[in-house]
Amino acid sequence: MRIRFSPVAGLVLAGLLMSAGAGVIGVAVAVPADAATVTVNCPANDLQSAINSAAPGSTILVRGTCTGSFTISTSLTLVGPGTLNGVQVGIGSTVLTVGGGAAVTLNSITVQGGGGEDYGAAGIDNGLDGSASSLTLNNSSVVNNNPYYYGNGHAGGIYNNGTLILNSSSVANNYAYLASSDIDKAGGILNDLEGTLIVNKSSVSGNTSALVGAGGIYNLGTATLSNTQVSSNSLILGVYSPDPAVGGIENEGFMTLNHTSVLNNSSGNIGVGGIDNTFSLTLNKSMVASNSGGSVGGINSSYPGASVTLNHTSVTNNVPNQCVGIVC
Prior knowledge:
Layout: H1 7-19, E1 37-41, H2 47-53, E2 59-67, E3 70-72, E4 77-85, E5 96-98, E6 103-112, E7 124-126, E8 134-138, E9 141-143, E10 158-160, E11 163-167, E12 170-172, E13 175-176, E14 189-191, E15 196-200, E16 203-205, E17 208-210, E18 213-214, E19 217-219, E20 222-226, E21 229-231, E22 234-236, E23 245-246, E24 249-251, E25 254-258, E26 261-263, E27 275-277, E28 280-284, E29 287-289, E30 299-300, E31 307-311, E32 314-316, E33 323-324
Parallel strand pairs: 1-2, 2-4, 3-5, 4-6, 5-7, 6-8, 6-9, 7-10, 8-11, 9-12, 10-14, 11-15, 12-16, 13-17, 14-19, 15-20, 16-21, 17-22, 18-23, 19-24, 20-25, 21-26, 24-27, 25-28, 26-29, 27-30, 28-31, 29-32, 30-33
């Protein structure tokens, strides 16, 4: 017969042993720490040490500017106003890495100054380790992340292969450079094959990708954008290759846009200005306007098997044309 050991009984037994008379050996029992709220005042305090010692479910109040490369593998909430500032030394490093299946929330946090790496993003990596980690940004910003090393990084702003949720947040003025044209990448957000991206009342703007890829968002997984603006992103120094060259959005997965605007994106003298779609794209009460590209201004869906559904959506004022592969 298999005997089950009760943790409660174990604690009682340990207490009895420790309080017994001489000659009895006490047994120490480790009790997990409870979730707590702690304050980190940077630069005086070390944020990574606070992260490492925090129990799951804890909240860390971040004050000031914390400089370094931070890793979270425990479910935590970081609350600002505070800034995580990257270090651009040598090949640079990602500012924040979330993995280990953790569920992490950033409230009023700015992530900036990342130097990037040879794989992943300059600003934030979520789920790069293959775990089902999740990251939620509320009223937060991922800005001005620029790979120091011209390697094969996937994104300037955020790389996601878990679940990424943005609420009233911004991904802006990030940059992705590529030394070779054989990798999927984005200036703003790269949502990989296993990734789920949900963006609400947010903006992805002013991001840049060089050579190939997408200036704003590159989606290979599942993405839903609602009440969001994707604007003024660009592809620069574009090269002719089989890889996408898009100013605004490259979609190679499942993407839905609700009440969302794709505006003023540019791909220079090649590629697509607004949206390039190779798989499944639905736009509901949205707008694709004033984008410019070398071959297509608005929406390109000229690939075998690609589908686009436009519901009460306008595609206007794009240069040199509105749509290729669909009627709009």
